[in-house]
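Pipeline run #58 for the internal structure catalog. This entry was flagged by the ingest filter as a single-chain record with no existing model, so it goes straight to prediction. Upstream metadata was stripped on purpose; only the residue string is passed forward. Reviewer on rotation: M.T. Logging verbosity set to normal.
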Amino acid sequence: MATAAQSRRYVRLVSWIAALGGLLFGYDTGVMSGALLFIGPEFGMTPTQEGWVTSMLLVGAAIGAMSGGRVADAIGRRTTLIIGGVVFVLGSLWCAVAGSVASLGAARTLLGVAVGAVSIVVPMYLSEQVPAAVRGRMVSLNTLMIVVGQLVAYLVNSALAHTGNWHLMLGLAAVPGAMLAIGMAFLPDTPVFYARTHRSNKASAVASRAGMSQQEVDEIIADHAAAEGRGQWQALRSSRWLYLTVAVAAVIGVIQQVTGVNAIVYFAPTLMNQVGMSTTNSVYTSIVIGLVSVVACWVGLQIIDRVGRRRLLLGGLMINVISLVVLAVVYGQAKGHPGLALLSLVVMAIFIASQQAAVSPTTWLLISEIVPMRVRGVGMGLAGLALWGANWAVAQFFLPLVSLLSAGATFLIFATLGLAAFAFVRVMVPETKGRSLEAVGEQFRQRFERATRS
């Protein structure tokens, strides 16, 4: 039995290495915000083509998210993350040498498959690998690494802005990809995967090393024994409470995207360029967004296990809605007015702060906690598909909507969707703080079975 100090060190090591997947996720989604300013003129791209190249990563991510959970169930969470790191390396290098819009789009799609798979499997790995008491902080470390990755992308873009070298901007993602693959090779898989593959002794040993109680280990083994012999799709179709629970997790994934966070992440430089900032200065505005994201996410990481997931998510959504309404008014008047342009950037920063301190970490965490153990692979995949599908829609249609309706009207649409998301969370999402994954699943089972009987 590991001592408490040994368990804490082990959990931190495991969490930091696995969270390199979040760093890659953040870098590859953030790097296009600056690189696009140089790729577009070089290839003579239209706004629709710019949206297409950006969103193809998200098409691949939807595929990766849908398949990543099943692959992780089949070959293990650890092996899936190693393969994901290798694909990151290959996709990044392909992006760097792409010579046409079609080639870049294809490379971004391959990269997206790795992004989507890793975005699901890292929270799955972490939520299954650490004790309930610290699960919020450790799983949310992945979200912190996402915004750190985005900040690194913004800094790289800014450092290379004077050269216009978008090839290097995109290719540098190969470095953390290699680090993820190598680091995961030295870590074990999770107790849940070992229980699924009938290695109870190994499950107990890994769980004990992480400081989990014997009760948590027994619940994991018992839950998988109860589901023995039934396929996950069969279990999902035949059990109303299971598919309703997965549906709630999928809606939570959509909630992360419906207020348009990635419209700001992907297109903040483009938006600021449209109201009069120079191309180089527009790239630099991403650093502001990135710094705010990292600080806010770090704050969220410190409080999520104390405040609770549900309360934090509701507060973040409400600040999002208010910020979007203000932004709709201010940005619409900002063209040719430097003061209003600067105010628009400040409001964007407030919006990003509430998103990264509250909405993003709680949604990723809740998805990893809510999906029941017996349909873990399929359920996480479906929730990830919903999240990445919403992300794709924002990336693909944001700039065309701005051209068609105006930026102000588009921000008001996001605000309305944010209000709908707030209402859903109030009614359907319970608090999961400090509870084992099995206990969370049992709460949903009782809720939906009671609703069926009534």
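catalog note: Residues 338-370 form the longest helix (33 residues).
catalog note: The mean pLDDT is 83.
status: ready for reviewer M.T.
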